[in-house]
Amino acid sequence: MAEFTSFGPTLAELGGAFAKPAFELRFNQLQNTITRRLNDEIQKVNDTLGDRATIESLRREGVKLAEGLPVIEQYVVHVKNSFSQLTDLYGDAQALFDSLGDDDTVTADEVAAFNAQRDVVVEKLNNLWLFAHPDIENGDVVINLKSQLEAIEGLTAVAGTKADNQATLDAVVAFRDDVGVGQDVTTTTLGTAFQLRETITADMSEVQAELLEITQVEQSRKIQELEELKERYATILSAISLSFEVNSEFAANVANSLKPVLPEPGSVLNLFT
Length: 273
Hints:
The protein is mainly α. The protein is built from 6 helices and 2 strands.
């Protein structure tokens, strides 16, 4: 009688042996695919800006404030210089009035001194800076004073008495008082400019703080979302790996179950085989 040989165990062992490298290849392919998908998900998270409208609005406001700060800084410098010019002009206008002397008589020398001082006033009035800021009312101080330039140039004095030069002296006093008013208005304007500068600086700080807060919140959200993604994909890989281990162990158990059970050497059971 021909002896029957079972190929089951051998086939099972071969199947298990070939299954392992095949699985490792598939596992590596799946791992690479999952890694690419994870990287794509991470990129999507990183590209998300959260509340785009709010962030963009804050950025635009920040840019506007940043552009406005140098403008107001320069305006403050101009106002300070203007106040200095007006202070000098006020002194020159007073000197023009005093050039005709303290007594009632006006001499030729005093007339010459008046004309010379008048030319100084005209020059300084002509050199007053004209500038403005769209958000600050300056009372058109320089414009109003410059409008008197022609009248100041036309002032003349005559030798004789103060009464003979009263109209000229009244015009000088009126001009000097206008310069004084200009000083007061410029002082107020300077205070307004300082306040606006402080407001812009404070608003810039507030915008920066809001952007920082939004960025930090968004960053925390991204970190949490990325951790969740990594955990999810790690779970998928672990599940695949565990599935392979189970299948591999199952194949080994099947192969072992198909092997014939032989008695140990010297056993009585060998008499029946």
